Automatic annotation (TrEMBL):
This is CotJC2. Gene3D superfamilies: 1.20.1260.10. Belongs to the manganese catalase family. Signal peptide: none annotated. Binds 2 manganese ions per subunit. The lineage of its organism: Bacteria, Bacillati, Bacillota, Bacilli, Bacillales. It comes from the Bacteria. It holds the Pfam family Mn_catalase.
Length: 116
């Protein structure tokens, strides 16, 4: 979405949108960072090694993404962009629900000794 929204922008338009630093470093290429410009790092991936704890981390990540998509929807009046963001937001809701279901299955089976 970001690429589609900026691919035809002029340098002047990018500058006016506050994207001149990004353009100077990356042209119009995608560079994964948060809204404050902090680059994405694999250190953001949380894993404890306990399936239940890890699923709760996944649930939290899905809910944070859902909230972010909602805030992005609130920031734009572009209906097509809103539609894409709404799809992504709803996908996060479904992921969160499936992870919650998995937690309940693991809790129910936690004490069972199974041999495979």
């Amino acid at each position: 979405m970001v690429y589609k929204l900026t691919k035809d922008a002029t340098v002047e338009q990018l500058r006016a949108a506050g994207l001149d630093d990004h353009y100077a470093n990356h042209d119009r290429a995608l560079f994964y960072q948060n809204a404050s410009g902090v680059p994405w790092t694999a250190a953001y991936i949380q894993a404890k090694g306990d399936p239940i704890a890890d699923l709760y981390e996944d649930i939290a990540a899905e809910e944070k993404a859902r909230a972010t998509y909602q805030w992005l929807i609130d920031l734009t009046d572009d209906v097509d962009l809103q539609d894409g963001l709404k799809f992504l937001r709803e996908r996060e809701v479904v992921h969160s629900l499936r992870f919650r279901e998995a937690v309940e299955i693991l809790k129910a089976e936690q004490g069972a000794k199974k041999i495979f």
